[in-house]
Write the structure tokens for this entry.
Amino acid sequence: MSTARAFVTRTLLPEALDIIREVADVTVWPEETPPSVEELRRHCGDADGILTTIMDRVDADLLDAAPRLRAISQLAVGLDNVDVAEATRRGIPVGYTPGVLAKSTADLAMALLLGAARRTSESERWLRGGGWQIQFHPTHWLGQDVHEACLGIVGLGQIGREIAKRAGGFDMDIVYHSRTRYPDAEAEHGLRYAEFPDLLAQADFVVLSVPLTPQTHHLISGPQLAMMKPSAILINVSRGPVVDPAALYEALRDGQIARAALDVTSPEPIAVDDPLLTLDNLVITPHIGSAALPTRLNTMKLAARNLVAGLKGEPM
Amino acid sequence: MTYGHEPVSPEMIATSPNLKAISVVGVGYDHVHVETCRERGIAVGHTPGILSDTTADMTMALLLATARNIVPAYNHVQVSKQWKYYDPNILWGTDVHHATLGIVGMGRIGHAVAKRARAFDMRVLYYKRERRPDWEEELGVEYVTFENLLEVSDFVTLHVPLTEETTHLIGEAELALMKKTAILVNIARGPVVDHYALYDALKQGQIAGAAVDVTEPEPINTDHPLLSLDNVIVAPHLGSATVQTRMKMATMAMENLLAGLKGEQLPYGVLQPNFPR
């Protein structure tokens, strides 16, 4: 039997590639930009296994063009770019990387939350522009206390729980909303369950950590933003389309909520002429939720091991 | 009533013969010449305690921002507008969870920082003149020597008052002991850190990054060499800058001032009034 062929759609750290190389000939997409639909089809043509990122659309069309494919491994937790039902129907296992990146994503959620609360990006930009002339002013750049504030977590998966844990260190009053209730998490982290409108009304900080599904598309839109406090801060580390960008723009522009910080946008990347980019009370980071060492390496290694397992016909 | 660090010098006090009370809006009083006040029986008040949590929040904001490259990320998307495609290989930062934090000077603010850091599963070390075994038990923090803290910490944060001993506490030698991947956070006082040594250490890659809420001088001039670096975050002294806390500080400072004027015990006194009535 000839050696398996694996196609990896973005550069990985050598340690992770070596794991795949033990069982397959590996082709790595060399560009910084992701492969186009055509290029992806071409490279998957003779692939037994592929390692993908969220930029790669893995649908029936692609699977039709990949007759030898028997394993798909995604370098992410979210799988909204992969037609998992179709892959399963064709007997192709799909791997993903839960757990390993939840803590780093929660770290980033807290970084965005604290940064927005204390206005670190805005004030730094002002300072570098020569704004800091008076040493101390009682009311300039006033932010909001995070300690003892009310945090609303929407979606209590692994990332939501890790956020709850960190928020506990700040003595935050934590309320959550999720499709299912989690009494164990309520006890462990001192959380209160609330219906979605109640959470929006109470929270000083709203963090979104839901998967993207048809139900969560535009979960936050005009009516939800109107329910929030004018001093509220919205943080999105889930998926861009969970938030309606036009509604968010208006809410921030008109002071319906105070500030927002997004690690994910709709579309991604955000267009350079998007009105959201004209706002001072918004921070956007380019999907760096788990972009930290050693986690990024560990995530790559897990995705590599998933691919190897799939190629060997073992559980991922 | 004083804001910020307008120096209250012996000369200034000498020109104010009726001065009974100085009420500092803040916890640090290194800019007030306390000896002269003691001689003259002038009361000095400050606002301890109530800004500890807010300052600890800011410490974590700066630590996380530096660790996860928030400012370069913001610049990439919103300032230089270079975000053209999803790239999993840019803006890699350092994991905060499970990293080692070294707290230098563990008073109320250091204690509050330790509590927050432990919620990120950080290993927390501390150095202070008097060991606090009760806090070690309560928070799960470890006491180490100053040198050891510098050598093994991924993040070093300074929470000492400014005194003669702590001036330039962090200088060339201390920066050389730190890890090349380490990040320094200073929210204490600018002069605790030798800024030129810090610049050199960052430029030469002796440490990986720094975040400072306090500088020497304040304000820092925009052509200061530290600002030419992109692995430094500088905040304009915002440690206690929240609506809630500034209100509390102002109220406390006013209570101190009124007590001092009446010759009564200050609720939060560095020096109680001691002048002939």
